[in-house]
Write a structure and sequence with these properties.
Layout: H1 2-42, E1 44-50, E2 53-55, E3 61-63, E4 67-73, H2 86-93, E5 97-99, E6 114-118, E7 121-125, E8 131-137, H3 145-151, E9 161-162, E10 167-172, E11 177-182, E12 188-194
Parallel strand pairs: 4-5
Antiparallel strand pairs: 1-4, 2-3, 6-7, 7-8, 8-12, 9-10, 10-11, 11-12
Length: about 200
C-alpha cells in the first residue's frame, strides 16, 4: 500500500506540474502577444550603426565606415521622446531614418504624386513610388523646443521661422534636411523629413 501511495503522489505531483506549466505557458504567450500588439499599436524605435570589420592586406583589423540608422514602427504620438535619442539624431544626419518602413532618399526625384498614411504618419511619394517626404506628428506637451534643439544641435540649419501659431526650426542632413515644428508653448508637434 505504501508503494502505491508513493506512485499515486508522484503521479499527482507530475500532473500538477505539467498542468501548471501548461497554464503558465498559455499565460506567457498571451501576455507576449498582447505586448507585441501594443508595441505595434503604440510604437517602438531602435537604432545603431551598421558596418563591420575587415582585414587589410597586412593582416590588421580595421573598422569599416559606420552608417548610423534608426527604425521606428507604430504611432509616433505614443512617446515622441525617441526624437531626442542620440541614435535618432545621428541617423537623421546620415539620412537613414525609417519611419513605419519608409526612408526618404534626398537624391530621389521630388515631384509629388500621392500620399500614403500609416498610423499617424504621412508619406509623400513621387511617380516612381519613391518616398520623397515623411511627416509625423508627436504627442502634445511632451518634447520641449529647448530639449529638441539641444539634442539636434549638431544638425542645426538656418534661423528658425516664428509665426503667430507655430515655430519651425530647420535642420541639415548630409544630403537633405528636416524641419521640426513647435506650438505656441514651445512643444514639438511634428517633424517633416525631406524637402
Amino acid at each position: 500500500m505504501r508503494k502505491f501511495g508513493k506512485i499515486f503522489s508522484a503521479t499527482l505531483v507530475v500532473s500538477t506540474l505539467v498542468l501548471g506549466s501548461s497554464a503558465a505557458y498559455i499565460t506567457t504567450t498571451s501576455t507576449d502577444a498582447k505586448a507585441a500588439e501594443q508595441v505595434q499599436k503604440w510604437g517602438h524605435g531602435e537604432g545603431g550603426s551598421s558596418g563591420g570589420e575587415s582585414v587589410n592586406t597586412q593582416g590588421m583589423t580595421s573598422m569599416d565606415a559606420q552608417t548610423p540608422w534608426y527604425n521606428y514602427e507604430g504611432y509616433t504620438t505614443y512617446d515622441p521622446t525617441f526624437t531626442l535619442d542620440y541614435n535618432f539624431v545621428r541617423a537623421m544626419k546620415y539620412d537613414n531614418v525609417s519611419i513605419n518602413g519608409y526612408v526618404v532618399d534626398p537624391k530621389d526625384y521630388k515631384d509629388y504624386e500621392y500620399t500614403k498614411n500609416i498610423y499617424d504618419t504621412s508619406i509623400d511619394f513621387n511617380d516612381k513610388d519613391e518616398p520623397i517626404q515623411i511627416t509625423f506628428k508627436t504627442k502634445p506637451n511632451t518634447v520641449t523646443k529647448e530639449a529638441f534643439k539641444k539634442a539636434h544641435a549638431s544638425n542645426m540649419g538656418h534661423e528658425e521661422l516664428v509665426t503667430e501659431d507655430y515655430t519651425m526650426v530647420p535642420y541639415n542632413t548630409n544630403n537633405g534636411s528636416y524641419k521640426a515644428f513647435f506650438d505656441k508653448n514651445d512643444y514639438l508637434t511634428k517633424i517633416i523629413i525631406g524637402q
